[in-house]
């Protein structure tokens, strides 16, 4: 049986080298350390000070649009140069990173490398001046046993410097239940990005929560024995960590080379569980056209040796170590596989090739209003698109160019050519369609939809999107809000009859200038009675007014305190409503803004002279969101310049960026009854797309 690592009974070496260049002293095995308060505190003090929170601005794609959000995870400083080990899913789709230390210091970080197959990544903090960092060490051998005390450290829910204690439940666990088909294990762990292929997990019950991902699992010697990765919502405190020795190997390789190169032979394995066989490992599937298929390997064969060394995988938990052994063969090496099938033995010779990418880069292409992913060979096989190269449409912006192309594109289409030029990757698409076409002519797209090859015409759109609404005909406006009063309600209230009771009078409104007040009951216009259909809808009153002409002189009959009134009113055009105002989607701020309208000022009791720009929407992970701008804020100043309208907002942002003064750009906003000052960080403005 192939084990992940040979067990070590007494001593464990450490991955890292001490700062003086001497290997760290051996530490006692955790099995001989008593889990009392003093030993727990000693282990805590070795690691917790170098556990960090990671703030990731990630770019996801929804309906073809890039959406920036903020997520958090945990990590551990593992070198004096400030390398931080964490999970790949913490950095996944990350566009910018910040690392927060235990003392509250916050530093930017760069992504050194990521390995999705092991779900590990390495960041390196970028201090303003060179410095040497304290760091923790990985265990070099996996010597955990059920019942050993372990400490989970990290930032659950973004709360830094947290620690929980528990015990190891099982040091070698595969997430395959008694009811699962182990052949589907990898695909269940990640669509298009399988993970956990090369190790079994450490199962423990130290409490973890979202935000703990990437944080260390520590034994009582203060070694990193695991990297916490997964938790279970159901089933109590079930948590799973990548074994520390495996994680240490991957992290060290990422620090040294920035990537993990593995070999690939073109087949998948499963254990012998349920087969009745007791020798070797089962070939579960073989890729069509692979070297393995050409060499004669078939699904159902058993591999009993690799380069003359016997292999066994009786249970699912035995398979990852064998897959890792094959993956660590040199790329381009000749490999001898001993094969058993129906009582016969044979030997196959294969040449390894580089492990292909499981998933290609995904990006939103604004001129098309679509998100697209580069199709890898693995993605092509899963979609019956073998041999094809192109860009897979993963989402469409409603009403965007791709959604209204002739005919419209759909998610799942494979874009292969634009204006007759192949687009095998995103760089090729940028080269072909990154600039506006002459005279705004449409582009001819060629794409695959299932087995069909289709064409479409698409007119791209470039730059910040300004929406100018279509002009509307002026409509008469009285300038009040009303509450419907039915006949029965009027009787109960002791009012003289039905009508519409004024609940608000807008400043400078026609009825206001005619002397109307809150509480007046409007009963007729030019002698025609006003009757409420029910006690909830004020539409009959407003529709009656809109049916009149702008500038028309009318007499509105009303009662006030039992006295009849006749209000002479000159109707005016209604102010523009929200839907009639111009909007501007600012790419650099990742915010949606619009003109400030009459009803915005009225809702906040602002003077008619108040200028500014309304914030209509903010992406949480964009520069505006990170500055804590909110929907409903009114921007009145940005940097050194006042903001009166959409044009001046864009001008003020350009000027602030060009000035380069200071680390932040102040933004003054009106929020509720307050005037607030917020700060845009130049770092986020330059690092986020």
Automatic annotation (TrEMBL):
Keyword Hydrolase in the entry? The reply is yes
Q: Name all PDZ domain ranges.
A: 254-314, 351-432, 467-531, 583-646
Q: Which SMART domains match?
A: PDZ
> Where does the signal sequence lie?
1-23
**Which keywords does this Swiss-Prot/TrEMBL entry list?**
Hydrolase, Protease, Serine protease, Signal
* Record family assignment: Belongs to the peptidase S1C family.
**Protein name (record):** PDZ domain-containing protein
* High-level lineage: Bacteria, Pseudomonadati, Pseudomonadota, Gammaproteobacteria, Lysobacterales
